[in-house]
Amino acid sequence: MQIIAKILTIREYIQKSLSLCKKIAESKSLIVLLIPSATLYHFGILESNVHMAWMRAVCGRLKSDYRYSKDVVYNNFPWPSPTAGQKEKIEQSAQAILDARALYPDSSLADLYDPTLMPKELLQAHRQNDRAVMAAYGFSTKMTESECVAELFKRYAEMVE
Q1: How does 121-148 read in b/e, with b if 16+ C-beta sit within 10 Å?
Q2: Cα separation, 39 vs 95, whole angstroms
Q3: Rounded Cα distance, 136 and 130, in Å
């Protein structure tokens, strides 16, 4: 299984999909990130508000569009060290995101993630995933994005020492 991240616009969540893929496409408006052997756990972390905060802080930009780089964003991202139970909750919430998307088979990811039209089930699944990932980091759900990024940079500094 591979994770494919399609970065289309500036939104609260980057639309990623789990699928089997043989080709990588890249253009000025679309970036595809492949992660071989990805699991629901990886998908859940990358779909979380924690990863979105990291991405917004370190990602490059082309005009107002994010330019997600595996070398800058993904490879330097400080992953949590979850307990087995926390990892299971992340996997379950990641599956809930995919299940919520499946309720709308005729909608594209762009349609599903339109900030004004995002289905309630999908938004709830993302919020559940955000809570599960924050718990794996030991973060408070009351933490601001700035506080989250500051804590992630502390963990990054520990990683590179």
Answers
A1: bbbebbebbbbbbbbbbebeeebeeeeb
A2: 10
A3: 10
Largest CA distance in the chain: 48
Amino acid letter, residue 62: L
Listed in sequence order, the residues at least 6 apart from 25 whose beta carbon sits closer than 8 Å to its beta carbon are 32
| H helices, E strands: number in the chain | 6, 5
What is the full per-residue pLDDT of the chain (161 aa) written as tens digits?
444 444 433 345 555 555 433 333 444 444 456 677 788 999 999 999 999 999 999 988 877 777 777 888 889 999 999 999 999 999 999 999 999 999 999 998 888 988 889 999 999 999 999 999 999 999 999 999 999 999 999 999 999 99
User: What pTM does this model have?
Assistant: 0.82
Asked if residue 4 lies in contact with residue 36, where contact means CB atoms within 8 angstroms, the answer is: no
Amino acid at 75: N
Which of 76, 59, 72 has the alpha carbon at shortest distance from 7?
Answer: 59
SS3 31: strand
